[in-house]
Specification:
Distance between the termini: 43 Å
Mean pLDDT: 92
Order of helices and strands: EHEEHH
Strand order of the largest sheet: 1-3-2
Number of helices: 3
Helix content: 40-55%
Low-confidence stretches: none
Oligomer: single chain
Length: 106
């Protein structure tokens, strides 16, 4: 196994759909929904910190590549925060969270 330091776009990263923090999911949308349901306030707080200060360079995402797909192995909350900051409509089914994300972006 080899390791590589690589810069990827948020859109190229996928949440781990078998994350033990939430029930079994079948899609990325379901994984984001589950993270927002289980960790909503933590995601919002993390999104606020990321927006203000950026990602902590000492806490890098660990990503596994399989078949040209990059799956997050450690950092699903950070990745969810990044995804909803980039695309707030991902939180449409959680209006309170979406509103808070939009306030962060104002």
């Amino acid at each position: 196994m080899s390791y590589e330091d690589k810069t990827l776009n948020v859109s190229e990263l996928f949440l781990d759909e078998s994350n033990p923090r939430f029930p079994e999911v079948r899609s990325q949308r379901d994984a984001i929904e589950a993270m927002l349901e289980e960790q909503g306030d933590k995601i919002v707080n993390l999104a606020r910190d990321i927006y203000r200060y950026g990602l902590n360079p000492s806490s890098r995402l660990i990503v596994f590549q399989e078949n040209n797909r990059f799956t997050d192995g450690d950092g699903n909350r950070r990745l969810t925060a990044l995804k909803v900051l980039e695309t707030p409509t991902l939180a449409n089914s959680h209006p309170r969270i979406k509103k808070k994300i939009e306030q962060i972006l104002e």
